[in-house]
């Protein structure tokens, strides 16, 4: 047991010689975890500005535009018949979309023809583009459906039958695990896992020079070396588990993010993830000669690690060699397990593969550290 405490003391002595690393290890994850969700705190877009380009000027075209303006997602801020003015407003960023009512819109609709309403949205803002296109399309389709029902009722004299003919089936869409349909609910839980890993790797890397100033005890055998390695990992795993508790039960409540998982499932799995990430960080730290090299390299790899984790890009579409590479990163299995347990409320049976992946990484990285100590 003394080897375990010797390992922990070895790491804490390195921190005493390089106290600046404590800023990264104790503060960075909390800081980023607190501010990262802030830009997405509104969760969904509301009152996106659009331009009404009404070339028809009829009662029906005005009704469609009124429906669009009444939508909680859109707000008509300007209108005219000048296409050039509408385009310039879009280019300046005054509006995020244009709704164009074509000439003879009402006449074609009343004759049973199919007039085309133009919806132009700035695809440079992907989420805004989706909201503009969806909300405007729904308003146009609702108006068209009402016209169809009215026309069928006039022909048949049976309003109920007219509604059944025009809308033979109803659809009810329920958002599971993300009731608000917000971007923050989707991205923050996964990115939080990557933030924990990357700040941990950077902090441990910054101690690389300080560790070389210490004098670890001589080897006492394979088992003692393994115990010593896990002693080295213990302070950082415990520290980051505490930070996870503050983030999961503090930041999630602050930003009202979904949290279907229970602590007795989330914490053991995340403790395994943090142990694997800590051992990974200790292995990487041995490869650095200077602490100045740590931050540039690990920051450069952060974005690829996000993509390899599989939440922002479908895993089956990632080339197979990169999928195997991703399995060597604790964050990949960490994201999978945390999202399933915390967002979906899954049980142990649904996270056996991520847990097995992390267990294999713990064995791999601890074995490398033991080998480095002995040879």
Helix/strand layout:
Layout: H1 2-17, H2 21-35, E1 48-54, H3 59-70, E2 74-80, H4 83-92, E3 97-101, H5 105-110, E4 118-121, H6 126-156, H7 159-166, H8 183-205, H9 208-212, H10 222-254, H11 263-285, H12 294-308, H13 320-326, H14 330-343, H15 352-374
**What would the principal axes of the Cα set say about the shape?**
elongated
Structural class: alpha/beta
Written as H for each helix and E for each strand, in order along the chain, the element string is: HHEHEHEHEHHHHHHHHHH
Counting DSSP H or I runs of 4 or more residues, the number of helices is 15
Mean pLDDT: 83
Spatial separation of the terminal alpha carbons: 23 Å
**Largest sheet composition:** 4 strands, mixed
Low-confidence stretches: none
- How many beta strands in the DSSP annotation? 4
What is the radius of gyration? 29 Å
Task: Return the domain count.
Answer: 2
Strand order of the largest sheet: 2-1-3-4
Helix content: 55-70%
Beta-strand percentage? Answer: 5-15%
What characteristics describe this protein?
alpha/beta; single chain; 2 domains; 15 helices; 375 residues; abc type-2 transporter like fold; four-stranded mixed sheet
